[in-house]
Amino acid sequence: MRRIILLATIGLITCSCDQTSTSHTGSFSLKPIPGSITYGGQPRMKLTKSPIGSQVPHRFTDQWGDDVYETYIIQPDRSLRLVDRKIIERRF
Q: Which PROSITE patterns does this one have (predicted)?
């Protein structure tokens, strides 16, 4: 429970000063976390056979053992844009 409160507090602090607007509608971009495909930059391999605008799902376990589900969209320059993240906490 303490971890949830700590993460919520950190999320509120970073939400107000770390996110950048990506469109005129006021939506914000998600920042990659360790384990994300784009953490540390775009992947070296270009997705040349996938159609532009298609979704790429990605699932991994974060450093706390929680399951993370991310969704990326392929951009016209073949880079990936992170558009959704769901974190499912493991209960012990």
A: PROKAR_LIPOPROTEIN
Beta sheet of 55-61, edge-to-edge order: 55-61, 67-74, 80-88
pLDDT reported for residue 27: 57
The domain containing residue 21 runs over which residues? Answer: 1-29
Task: Say whether both 10 and 37 belong to one domain.
Answer: no
Residues 83 and 39 in one domain: yes
The 10 Å Cβ neighbour count of residue 80 is: 21
Residue whose pair of structure tokens reads 């784009």 in the numeric block: 38
| pTM of the predicted structure, to 2 decimals | 0.66
Identify whether residues 62 and 77 lie together within a single domain: yes
From the CA atom positions of the chain, what is the Rg in Å?
15
